[in-house]
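Our collaborator T.R. sent over the components below with a one-line note: 'Predict the complex.' Nothing else. No constraints on interfaces, no templates requested, no preferences about which chain binds where. So this is a plain run: every listed entity goes in together, and whatever single assembly comes back becomes the starting point for the next discussion.
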Amino acid sequence: MSATDAPPNPWFSWDYVARNWGDIERALTQHVSLTVQAVVLALVVALPLAGLAHLRPRLAGPVVGTAGVLYTVPSLALFALLAPYTGIGRTTVLIGLVLYALLVLVRNVLVGLAGVDPAVTDAARGMGYGRVRMLLQVELPQALPSIVAGVRVATVTTVALVTVGVVVGYGGLGQLMFRGFRSDYHAEIMTATVLCVLLALVADLLVVLVGRLLTPWRSARDRQAAAA
Amino acid sequence: MDLLTEAFAWLNDPLNWTGRNGVLALTAAHVQVTLVAVLLAAAVALPAGVALGHARRGGTLGVVVANTTRALPTLALLTLLASAGLFGNTATVLACAVFAVPPLLTNTVTGLAGVDRDVLDAARGLGMSGPRRLWLVELPLAVPLVAAGVRTAVVQVLATVPLAALVGGRSLGSVVVSGFATQRYGQVLAGGLLVAALCLVAEGLLALAQRTVTPRGVREAAGRGRRPRRGLTAADPVPAVATARGPGSNGITR
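Returned assembly:
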């Protein structure tokens, strides 16, 4: 296979995929592992944080405010601010991704907790539930739809955001896009783009499925009513 | 703190501020690209949003557009456009315009479709024709949401433009990218601070502007109690982003 036999289509080339599968696989694995780690870590931090802000409403303002300001900071700037301290590589990308996902999640969990029907919490209080037990056993399960929606948005944005990691040399599929741009190899860019979008869609579907499994009491009709 | 000193030393050097690739010129380029991109997006999204919202349709279209553009990485679009032959800032403007469409479109549609039907009935009872209703009733009532959409779009594009430095666009992001390339991390830090500051300042200014353009009656009504917004529940991923994007209590959701 010489370099002279140009692919028939410069944008879509199966030949490229077949020849470079090892490379693509490595980028894809990196992309997936970064996304999963970031979303899981963010969720682990966001749930207690939002719970605390819900129990202590005075904290809610500062928490949401800080989140808003941080969210306004562009990803490139955030990586630029982190990289000198956390070094070039995986840690920097992961911290950045967790921060952005965290902001989406905290907001959504808080919205979900605030949206719980007062009649439900009244009933729980009447049954003698304490504040913390009510949060864990009544309010959080009730807020699940909103939390799942937050996880969906966080997952899809994280998949897209991983690509920005190229600035510190750790961008998953973004690495392929950038290399393709540098060497003017259109098929490489296109393959990485398509894989990235597919990954986002698959991840979104998986989160939706998990959400359905977690909320079996929501019937199909509820869902339709919520979607309308 | 050594790096911070280095960053401030970089920021203090007048040579870094003037000239073709100085901070001032790059900021000007940054803002210019942003404005062109948002105007381009607005030229498409606002008329479409008004038409769809007035007809009370297009909710699904907004969701689809928003979800697709969220899944598409900015870097992908930038590298695709740049290597398709659109070098420099043309690729940047086009890519950013694509990402500015969803907030503008969805907010315009929700703003118009969220106008209370009773209000429209009253306007019809006063003898207003369709276009008059749109101009005198629906649009003023939709202003807060449309303005919030413009604000989100501008800040989002300001945040996206720096990425274009990776594919050869000129903006404040160039400071960061060339800092990374030459391993001068003081410069990287300085560039990061500049970009972040630009976005935060723009966000603040636009929040003020949004307040100014909101008709006084609407502002007072919003102060007395929020009108319920149709179709914006936390169960839907799209409003969740609208929530996340608009930090202030600007009425994007709820």
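Summary for T.R.: Chain A has one domain: 18-214.
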